[in-house]
Amino acid sequence: MNILYFELLKLRKKSRGWLGPILVFILIMTAFPLTVEFLNEDLEQAFFSILWIAVLLVMMLATEDIFLEDYNDGSLEQLVIHTESLSFVIGVKILIYWALIGIPVSLIGSIYCLGITSSFEMALLIFPVLLISSYIFLNLFCFGNSLTLTKGSVLGTLITMPLLLPLLVVLGKVVIAINLGLNYFDFLILLLGVLSIIIVIIPLIISFVIRAHLE
Amino acid sequence: MFNFAFSSMSEAILMESQNGQNHGIYVWSVFLIVFGALILTFIIYKNKIRNLSKKIK
Amino acid sequence: MIKKFIHQFASPKTYLKQVDRAYSYIFFTSLSIYLIAIFWGLFLTPEDFVQGHSYRIIYLHVPASFISQSLYLGMAFASAIFLIWKVKLSAYLVRSIAPIGAMTTFIALVSGSIWGIPTWGTWWAWDARIISTLILFIMYLGLISLHDSFTNNEKADKFLAILVLVGSVNIPIIKMSVEWWSTLHQSASITITQKPAIDPSMLYPLFASAIGFTGLVVCLVILSSKFHILDRERNKSWVKDYV
């Protein structure tokens, strides 16, 4: 509980860390209708692909310096020495990032969905998908950025984006499933299964990587 | 199984198919790219090893 | 016991010695097999009824795309060995396979897109197989740039191995993309479990070209690994004797 509170406080104090990505998300979602003719049908067609890509980009920006500042001021080294399970702390850290960035982004995303498709059911069904996918994105980008800790986030994105390709395909299928009224819950369970694997494995891998960085 | 599919050299280069299109340009350009890439990679690595051995000596 | 075996036989020195001895045999056999297979495929096989002569690209395209995925599996295998038993040689191998993999993936992409012009009427389609091959290409380049961005080579080896292992989840998806999604790209004509969906007179040269191309790629990997081993171990005394 102590760690949870401490990490929460640390992120909340750094408003550019959590407010910045949310505002960037709003900006992207507001800017994209400007690039299309103002016809509702066109907007609807492009909306979901823009939505997934925007969520992905925002999660990338949010995790850009998740470990970098701790690494620079030495608190990461302290963490490695003093805590028994580093992976647990990392898991908590990612959870807090998700709570402060992922959940608001998903909420805003489904509000945009309501605004553009003007179907309440669609927005309601998209919300859990957004929640799960933003968590998965966060985990994987954390992994990429922990690998390239001091080398900048461009490289981190370059190596993480290919791993997200299958997920993007699934997300595309989910929208089709909702539109046709098909097996939406199967997809939701699939995403949850992927998340439950990732949530366990990624912190373990990240803790291994961070130990290697500090050697 | 071992009959020539073409009767002359120019026919083999053009590769005119049943639908009347010449597919030779596609086949031969792929051929050139594959062999070019292979040969180029071999040359690059041979050169790299030679330069490195000189440096080590 | 396995550990002892690996450490004895996987020292870079013994590896280089063995590989130097085998190199010329592998090179000349596979080169002759490949040239014969390409000649056989391009001139001796009958014309395809549907695709016309353009199907002859299969003898150049299929081996490259098969190898580009196998090389990644090889990399994943080597990185697992490196992370479990800390064998240095396999870390060098991972680094030296990556550029070769990028090269074969490039060949597969370009030859596939040229093949698409006469058969599909377009040189690029946004379908699952093509996109996933392109992603594989970018993955190889990303692996290389990850390794090169660290000056500390031991660290870079470790990170590269982790990334290769995590990235290997994409390989089954690339492999199955043709079957899981309805796409333009035809599904694999040759599988282990089923009878091949291709005429024997076209199949044998395809096998031969796949074997020959694999041999040539193995030669390239040997050359590249030789370069990386010499580069990384240049301060050791045996390297000076070797050179």
- Count of structural domains of chain A: 1
Helix content of chain A: over 70%
**How far do the termini of chain A sit from each other?**
29 Å
Rg calc of chain A: 18 Å
- Count of the separate structural domains of chain C: 1
Number of helices of chain C: 9
How many strands, what sense, and barrel or not for the largest sheet of chain A? Answer: none
Strand content of chain A: under 5%
Q: What is the overall number of helices of chain A?
A: 9
What shape does the CA trace of chain C take? globular
Unreliably modeled segments of chain C: none
Calculate the terminal CA-CA distance of chain C, rounded to whole Å.
32 Å
Description:
- Chain A has 215 residues and is mainly alpha-helical.
- Helices cover 87% and strands 0% of the residues of chain A.
- Chain A is built from nine helices and no strands.
- In chain A, helix 6 packs antiparallel against helix 7, helix 6 (86-117) packs antiparallel against helix 9 (184-214) and helix 8 (153-180) packs antiparallel against helix 9.
- Chain B has a domain at 25-57.
- Helices cover 68% and strands 0% of the residues of chain B.
- Chain B is rod-shaped, with a radius of gyration of 19 Å.
- Chain C has one domain (23-44, 53-242).
- The mean pLDDT of chain C is 85.
- In chain C, helix 3 runs antiparallel to helix 4 (88-120).
- Chain C contains nine helices and no strands.
- Chain C has helices at 2-9, 12-44, 58-85, 88-120, 128-148, 153-167, 170-180, 200-232, 237-242.
- The chains are: A mainly alpha (215), B mainly alpha (57), C mainly alpha (243).
- Chains in contact: A-C, B-C.
- At the B-C interface, helix 2 of B face helix 2, helix 3, helix 4 and helix 8 of C.
